[in-house]
Amino acid sequence: MATQTQSGKAFEYAIAIALYNKLNNGQQVTLIEDDNFHNALNYYERYEQPKQQDYNKAAIAAIDHITQLEPRLEHPISNEGITISIQSDQMGESGDIRDIITVRSTQNWEIGFSAKNNNDAVKHSRLSDRIDFGKEWLNVPCSNEYMNEVDHIFRELREMIASGRTRGTISLWRNLGDSKLDYYRRVLEAFRKELIRIVESNENMPETLFRYLIGRNDFYKIMRTKKIVTVQGFNLYETLNQPSNTKQPDLRISRLRLPIRIDSSNYEGNNRLLVSFDRGWGLSFRVHNASSKIEPSLKFDVRLVGAPPSLYSNNIILR
Known about the structure:
Elements: H1 3-23, E1 29-31, H2 35-45, H3 49-69, E2 82-86, H4 90-93, E3 100-104, E4 109-117, E5 121-127, H5 133-138, H6 144-167, H7 179-201, H8 205-214, E6 219-224, E7 228-234, E8 262-268, E9 272-277, E10 282-288, E11 298-306, E12 312-317
Parallel strand pairs: 1-2, 4-6
Antiparallel strand pairs: 2-3, 3-4, 5-11, 6-7, 7-12, 8-9, 9-10, 10-11
């Protein structure tokens, strides 16, 4: 498991514990200690105490702030307790990118949190000749033209791999020199053309794309860097920021409106595509090789680089 994933899991654990300690104030709080919880705990315990304290400090600061936005966390409508759980990574594949969930089941109320440690990517996907991103992301199959184009590109990579095996060597990306960038650009150009075709040929595709990338549930994103923790409220369906019977939120969060069209697409270097949408949204698609060895697929990092001014965001300086 990559270091970025390990640190993310450790931060998930710190947030779950910060939630438990904050909410355990007389109400019944249940922390689900299942395999997902113990997996996060395992990575948390691999870090030295100073690093654990850094995670704890960021998590506590974020949860202290979120309770100002979500009075139902500390002030339940009824006597029902609250359950805290860490979700499996597989939930993200079905469109639920939340890492930690708090639930009051009989009230049909829940709040989810996405934990990011020195990382603001919204998706880590792959592109290859055997992956139909249109079908997987948008439920609209890619065209034959796109599949044929990427088939030609990745067939070349498969032939390189086979040639290396024949010679008893391993084919490495670094041995390709600048031609590596040519593969990046060709794959990215094929993706760009197909994404625009799908969006322009099908109704509501920008909304569908964003629901896939940022999830089909409202949530708070908690992003930690060395000195700052940022809390963002993705209130797409107006389930965040609700009052309890006895308390209103201290701060208000606006509803976010998803985009309805692509405004422009531009390259940044040979391996990054920037796509601008209406209503202030923007995405960065970066192609790279995940391994030093040549593989018949490329990694795709998708980041949110533009959001409406109505996106709630608060930076907390860690001391």
